[in-house]
Amino acid sequence: MPLAIMFSAMAALFLAAAMSHWQETTMLYARNDAVRQADAAIYASCLICCRDMSILPEGTGPVSIRPFPGKNIEVLVSRRMHGLYDMLTFKVRLPGGGERCSARLIGKSADMTGSSVMIKDTGMDISIGDECLIESTLYVPKGRYRPVSHAGSGRHRLSGKLDIRKSPAAFPCTDVRADEALKMIYADSCGDNVFLSDMDSIPDMTVSARSVTVGSKFRNSVQIFARDSIVLEDGAFLEYPSGIHVMSPGGMIVMKGNSVVEGYAIVSSTGGNQDYGTGQINYIQTDSATVRGLVIVDGKADIRGTVTGSLYLSYPISRTGRGYSPMTLRGLTQIDKCSLPYPVFLSGAAGMEVAKVLPPEFQTSHNKETMQ
């Protein structure tokens, strides 16, 4: 009799344990299924927003999106500028408590805007050295350029099927949101002189100061805004989505050997009112430096090396043994194929796409699960 009681008790314990395990497994499956549905809803909501950003007006709080008709899944989406990209934050409440959150940087689709090289029409002719390689549409003053031979170089690589057009007198416009964002960024300048070393490892930060120097061992994503100068030491690598921006009457960007920027490099120094033939150089990019994305220099630019994407220049100059040659482009390799989304302010086609899914520290909600 005691043996039968013992077996009955063991069977009851086993059944209770099995039921508990089954309940836990069922709850875990339901939780995972809810998380998968929330992730799908966030992904679909992001696609909806990229197709039409007008549904997300700034300053109005989060917007509710129901991406799946017939399903009771609501995604709350907020929008704000993060440097010169848009940052979208998504939040979905999960059944049983908690939230699923994600933050993403959004840029303008390079596939829709296309790549080009534009020399602004300032009334002066442009000379282009035969060692240059340009793959995109070339906009030059009066729709023509003067080829300049270089001793020992090969065939002029701008001939053939290159699409050459007459350049306008102004760059593509920026929108009001970008102008307001830049005013706020420069108003909140964090100091006079900032040095970014290999120890500055927080990704996707923005830095605003009078002058910024990026050390040779730096490798991370950052957007830098400086009133006077930005210097990238030899080997500095700004990973996508990064950017460097100078806005000052005498602003300057210097990219030394083997430095790389993935995103944008912009100098807005003259406002279109300066005599480009005078004053200091505003942009220097050495032969081994690279920008993947967008370069805009409203000033004097001594640019060599590689640009993968679009390039807009007001007054290119070229070093010679006796100084500088005005309105001359030499030593530049411009590659048309750029899949990196541009900053959102650039005028053109309205197509947007995700530049990056941001790390957890950019999530703003508590009691959440983070999607990456």
Structural description of this entry:
- With 372 residues, this protein is α/β, with parallel strands linked by helices.
- 18% of the residues lie in helices and 41% in strands.
- It has 3 helices and 25 strands.
- The chain has helices at residues 2-51, 110-113, 176-187; strands at 63-65, 75-82, 85-93, 99-108, 116-119, 127-129, 133-134, 137-140, 146-148, 164-166, 193-196, 205-214, 219-220, 222-232, 237-246, 252-255, 260-268, 283-285, 290-303, 305-320, 323-326, 328-329, 332-335, 352-357, 368-370.
- Strands 1, 2, 3, 4, 24 and 25 form a 6-stranded mixed beta sheet that branches. Strands 14-15-17-19-18-16 form a 6-stranded parallel beta barrel. A 3-stranded parallel beta sheet has the order 9-6-22, with no helix packed on it.
Number of helices: 3
Helix amount: 10-25%
Unreliable parts:
152-156, 365-372
Overall average residue pLDDT: 81
What's the story with the biggest beta sheet?
A: 6 strands, mixed
**CA-based gyration radius:** 27 Å
Give the helices and strands, then pairings.
Elements: H1 2-51, E1 63-65, E2 75-82, E3 85-93, E4 99-108, H2 110-113, E5 116-119, E6 127-129, E7 133-134, E8 137-140, E9 146-148, E10 164-166, H3 176-187, E11 193-196, E12 205-214, E13 219-220, E14 222-232, E15 237-246, E16 252-255, E17 260-268, E18 283-285, E19 290-303, E20 305-320, E21 323-326, E22 328-329, E23 332-335, E24 352-357, E25 368-370
Parallel strand pairs: 4-25, 5-8, 5-20, 6-9, 6-22, 7-23, 8-10, 11-12, 12-14, 13-15, 14-15, 14-16, 15-17, 16-18, 17-19, 18-19, 19-20, 20-23
Antiparallel strand pairs: 1-2, 2-3, 3-4, 4-24, 20-21
